[in-house]
Design brief:
extended, eight-stranded antiparallel beta sheet, Rossmann fold, eight-stranded mixed beta sheet, 4 domains
């Protein structure tokens, strides 16, 4: 999971739509630093990630029910809905994901009502096409980064030591079991128990009143499908309008002499991108076609080898020869005369001599069959080699096309940035208008995809309702079948429980070993991390040959918790590498977003943590105050910065003390006087020279 960007609208202290925060993702510069004073919105930004992905919040995030920006509510008219949303994009397994969670506040005469949250997801492959996934968004996110693991990737650094508190140990146990693979067995056992319980309950027939209720639901869903279908038509018309508007704006931009060359180059690149994306789809289809027609041949290598061994054995035993066949000799003995005219009647020496050949002669039928099958086996072997050659060739072409598309997109981004920053106001204005059109088209496509999925879901519900309406009483045969299933389910539960016990011990010891290695790299203390059988995380020291628990300080617990998180990431990477060996796409990228990770640490530990955490994850985002950033932290982390931002807090306090931070030789405001009676936060990108 590689985070690409995040945008917010009326989320807590962020008023209106914020600029898109692009997150660093390079190898050498994989770190994004976000500066902000206390109260400026760092914790809100951290919780924007956890809210949009999991609808969860950190412990320090107060008043979780009040997400909508107060200024936006105050400026709204009575009865008007105020939108609050967070949108995040990321890449995973060569696919791009866009997920948006939103809620609304409704301003009344006396109070404010808050609506339910809505989650929407769109997915695009590297061919550039967006679609709605067949699974629910929560399920897709959970498969990429499970909910119970999110606290180890999005966390408050000042409170990270809470991981080792006694009331958190149960959470550690459950989360640890997920990435160890034990939780998969637990879920299987729980599902079997639910299935057993369901089988044990006697199903009741549907009554008339229930059928009427189902029919009402059916009618309601059909009306909703009709409404969404009408909206789809409106979206299609709006998309056509926006495309026309886009062409006109692009044409106007091309007519300006200062932008003509760049605009023509952009149109040429967009055509190249479309052609490469089409070639990418063709290569994928070729791999699918080869797999469906010849893929089975790669699984027959052992069978063909066994066949060749069997043929060799027959030849060595003399049962498969290329000489005179048994059928020919029997025909001579039956006719009682050799082809040379010799008498072969029984009792004569010549008869006995010919008969002796039966012991060494082979069957012509067996020989012919062996020859025919050998030819087929050779053909299967050739097809298997041809299959791998074609797959390797198409996969190499896919990788090349991906690289080409990436280069084209980088050049397109560069052209757009040059047009945005052009000193000619007309050119920069036209480019900004194109950006707005592109964003509008994207949002319409996302809404279109979401509506398509809603229609699919509603139709699935209609199908289920139809089955329920037609459902009849179970007969005795089905009840007997359920009893047999109950017995089989209980047997499976007992076997899986035994497997779980064996795996828990093995994986827990592997995790403990990695935690100890990382802790020793960071901490100068002689303490040793331990993970008990109950997955309790603790520090011990060896006193007179006995391991005794250590009353660790807050700083030591902070280092211990970071070591634990690092070990989790290592185990996930190892798991991903095993998946790649099975031809599963790469999923070994894991991001970390951490707020104020240096609060309780001394100078030495601060330096070690600042040096270590950019190496812990493929992608790191750190939110820091000016005090936490300066000194050894800035020295160690500056060289890893790929993106950098400042949260500027506008205070409504009349006599507020303004503050700033120096970054790359430039001065950036941290606190400014608000131009109105509201307090809010703005996001400013930092541009370090070089």
């Amino acid at each position: 999971m590689k985070l690409a960007s995040i945008k917010l609208c009326n989320f807590r202290s962020f008023y209106g739509k914020t600029p898109e925060i692009i997150l660093a993702g390079g190898e050498a510069r994989n770190t994004t630093i976000i500066h902000g004073n206390n109260g400026a919105g760092k914790t809100s930004l951290l919780n924007a990630f956890t809210w949009v992905l999991y609808e969860k919040f950190s412990a320090a995030f107060a008043s979780t029910e009040q997400l909508v920006n107060k200024r936006a509510i105050a400026e709204a008219k009575i009865g008007q809905a105020v939108e609050c949303w967070v949108e995040v994009e990321w890449e995973h397994d060569s696919k791009r994901y866009n997920v948006k969670r939103q809620c609304r506040a409704y301003k009344n005469q006396t109070d404010i009502n808050f609506g339910k949250t809505e989650l929407r997801m769109q997915v695009a492959g590297d061919d550039g096409r967006w679609y709605f996934p067949p699974q629910q968004p929560e399920e897709v996110i959970g498969q990429i980064l499970p909910t119970s693991l999110h606290q180890y990737f999005f966390f408050d650094g000042e409170r990270i030591e809470a991981i080792v508190r006694s009331d958190k140990k149960a959470e550690i146990a459950e989360a640890t079991k997920i990435f160890l693979g034990v939780e998969v067995i637990n879920r299987s056992i729980n599902h079997l128990k639910e299935a057993k319980k369901s089988l044990e309950n006697e199903l009741k027939a549907i009554g008339d009143s229930e059928i009427k209720q189902l029919l009402r639901q059916q009618s309601s869903i059909e009306q909703e499908i009709e409404r969404i279908t009408k909206r789809q038509t409106e979206i299609q018309h709006e998309l056509e309008h926006q495309e026309t508007f886009k062409k006109d704006t692009s044409h106007h931009l091309r007519e300006l002499s200062a932008a003509k060359e760049l605009e023509e180059r952009r149109q040429e690149l967009e055509k190249q991108k479309i052609l490469n994306q089409e070639s990418l789809r063709e290569s994928r289809e070729e791999i699918k076609k080869a797999t469906s027609t010849r893929g089975y041949t790669v699984f027959l290598s052992e069978t063909t080898a066994d066949f060749r061994v069997m043929i060799n054995d027959l030849k060595q035993q003399g049962k498969l020869t290329s000489g005179i066949s048994r059928e020919f000799i029997n025909d001579l003995l039956k006719s009682q005369r050799c082809i040379c005219g010799t008498d072969l009647r029984a009792g004569k020496p010549s008869h006995n001599n010919v008969r002796k050949f039966l012991d060494t002669a082979g069957s012509s039928a067996v020989e012919e069959t062996a020859i025919r099958i050998s030819a087929q086996v050779d053909e299967i072997h050739k097809q298997a080699l041809s299959f791998w050659e074609e797959v390797d060739r198409e996969q190499a072409r896919i990788n090349q096309l991906r690289q080409t598309i990436s280069q084209i997109e980088s050049e397109l981004d560069n052209i757009q940035e040059r047009l945005r920053k052009n000193t000619n106001e007309e050119i920069s204005s036209l480019q900004k208008r194109l950006d707005e059109i592109e964003e509008k088209i994207k949002q319409l496509i996302l809404e279109q995809g979401a509506n398509q999925q809603k229609i699919v879901n509603y139709k699935s519900e209609l199908a289920d309702l139809g089955k329920q309406i037609a459902k009849q009483k179970l007969n005795e045969d089905r009840q007997l079948l359920a009893q047999r299933r109950i017995t089989a389910t209980q047997d499976a539960i007992e076997r899986l429980t035994k497997v779980r016990e064996l795996q828990e011990t093995q994986f827990r010891l592997q995790l403990e070993k990695r935690v100890q290695e990382i802790f020793r790299e960071i901490s100068f203390t002689p303490y040793l991390p331990k993970i008990s059988e109950k997955y309790e995380l603790m520090l011990v020291e060896n006193t007179s040959g006995l391991e005794m628990p250590v009353a660790a300080s807050t700083g030591e617990n902070q280092i211990l918790s970071l070591s634990f998180i690092a070990s989790i990431i290592d185990r996930l990477r190892e798991w991903s590498e095993k998946r790649k060996m099975l031809l599963v796409p790469d999923s070994s990228n894991f991001p970390i977003v951490m707020d104020s990770p240096f609060g309780s640490l001394d100078e030495i530990s601060r330096r070690q943590i600042a040096k270590t955490i950019p190496q812990m994850a493929n992608q790191l985002t750190v939110l820091v105050t000016k005090t936490q950033w300066r000194g050894e932290v800035e020295e160690e982390m500056t060289k890893r910065i790929g993106r950098e931002y400042v949260l500027t807090y506008y205070s409504s306090k009349p006599d507020c003390e303004q503050d700033y931070i120096m970054l790359g030789g430039e001065r950036y405001p941290l606190i400014k006087q608000s131009p109105n009676e509201y307090e809010y936060t703005e996001i400013m990108a930092v541009n370090r020279e070089g």
